[in-house]
C-alpha cells in the first residue's frame, strides 16, 4: 500500500457515472478537491455493499463541501452501473478491470476467497494537492473502514485549508506593511516628519494585522510545515511592527525638535528592523 504523504497515482478508467458509462480521469474529476478513494473487491458482495453505502451516507450527511468520493473495483463498468442503481450510490464507480490501478496503489490481492486479481478493501483520502493524507487497507476480507478516521482525515485537511486561507490574508497584509514601511523610511530620510509618521502608522497597522493572521494560521494548522511557517512569519511581522512603532515616535520627536529623543527612538527602530531583515523571507501561500 502506498504511504501517506506520497503523491496519489493518477489514472483513467471506464466508470459508471450518474447512470452512464464514461471515461474518468482521477485528477480531472477530483479537480483540486479532497477525494475519498475507496477500493473494494466486488460489486454485490455484502461487505462491499456495506462499505460503499456507508461512504454514501458520509457523502450525503457528514462530509463538507468540496469533498468527492470514487469507488474502484475490478468489475465492469456495466456491473458498477447496476450496483450503483440498486444501492442509490451517487458517486462514480471506476472499472479497474485489469487491476493495474489497484497494483499502483499497492492494494491488488493475489487471491480473495478463490478469486484472483481483486482489489483489497482500502480507503485513501487524497488532499486538494493530490497528496495521500490517509491510507487504510483491510487486514481481513470482511473488515470495514473506520469511518471516524476517514472523517478525521478530511477534517484535518480542511483545517489546513482554513489555516492557509488565513496565512494568505496575513501575507497580503505583511506585503502592504512592507510597502508602507519603505515609503515611510524614504519620507524620514527626506525629513518629511509628518508624512513619515503617518506612513509608519499605516505600516504598523498592516504588520499588526499580519501578526494576528499568522498566529491564527499557526493555531489552525494541522500540518507541522504550515504551523512552523506561521510561527516564523508571526515573529518577523512582530519585529517589523515594533520597528514601525519606534519610527513613529522618532518621526514625531524629530518634528518637535527633540533630536536626542528622536535619535534614541530611531536606534531602537533600526535594531528591530535589523532583527526582521535578519530572518529568512516569509514564504507565500504556494510555498507553505
TrEMBL record:
PROSITE patterns: THIOREDOXIN_2. Keywords: Redox-active center. It holds the Pfam family AhpC-TSA. Residues 2-159 form the Thioredoxin domain. GO terms for molecular function: antioxidant activity; oxidoreductase activity. The keyword Chloroplast does not apply. PANTHER family: THIOL PEROXIDASE (PTHR43110). This is Peroxiredoxin. It comes from Natronoarchaeum philippinense.
